[in-house]
Design brief:
This protein is α+β, with helices and mostly antiparallel strands and about 190 residues long. The protein has five helices and eight strands. The longest helix has 15 residues.
Length: about 190
């Protein structure tokens, strides 16, 4: 998969040459994103996080194996492509389950403009039409109202709760699960 495009919005793989934009957008949004970012439990504290280049290599490896598709959310503004976030179709499973989950983050300066919802719709469409997945989940913290609105506006339905589901901001956090099913897969 090279890229997904909808008007001025493009979803494409993050490359080595994007490091300056990546570093900049992550630095500006550190405080904005930290309450929602996955962290590592204490058992992993000796394992260092990969460098930017290590992250890109891992993302590419996972994409080639079709285990996870992680894409930058790019906005064309003044004839320039600007990195405004990231979206991942992860945990891809084929066979009897044919499912995955979507996770995302957005630059605060571009939040509440519909870009994240559009990115979710675009990646969901790819998952359903190209990968022929049956079910995609979005798991989010119940207090994350903005993320909840993204899931709802993208056509996902609340399915239920998952207690202590994911390690976020230093502890195991409860999540709620939104689901969308592909009516074409019988």
């Amino acid at each position: 998969m090279r890229k997904l495009v909808e008007h001025e919005l493009t979803l494409k793989a993050i490359r080595f040459r994007d490091k300056t934009q990546w570093d900049s957008v992550r630095a500006v949004n550190r405080d904005w994103l930290s309450p929602w970012e996955a962290t590592r439990p204490n058992i992993d504290h000796n394992s260092p996080l990969p460098s930017y280049y290590g992250m890109v290599m891992q993302l590419n490896k996972e994409m080639k194996a079709l285990r996870s598709i992680s894409l930058g959310i790019w906005l064309k503004e003044n004839n320039e492509q600007i990195l405004i976030g990231q979206i991942t179709l992860g945990g891809i499973i084929f066979g009897a389950m044919r499912g995955a989950h979507i996770g995302y983050w957005i630059d605060q300066r571009y939040s509440n403009r519909g870009y994240t919802t559009r990115a979710v719709k675009l990646l969901t469409k790819f998952g359903f039409e190209n990968l022929r997945l049956h079910r995609i989940e979005i798991n989010l913290r119940p207090e994350n109202e903005a993320s909840k609105q993204v899931a709802i506006k993208a056509g996902y339905l609340l399915e239920g709760a998952r207690n202590k589901y994911l390690h976020i901001a230093g502890d195991w956090r409860d999540h709620i699960t939104f689901v969308k099913e592909n009516p074409e897969i019988k």
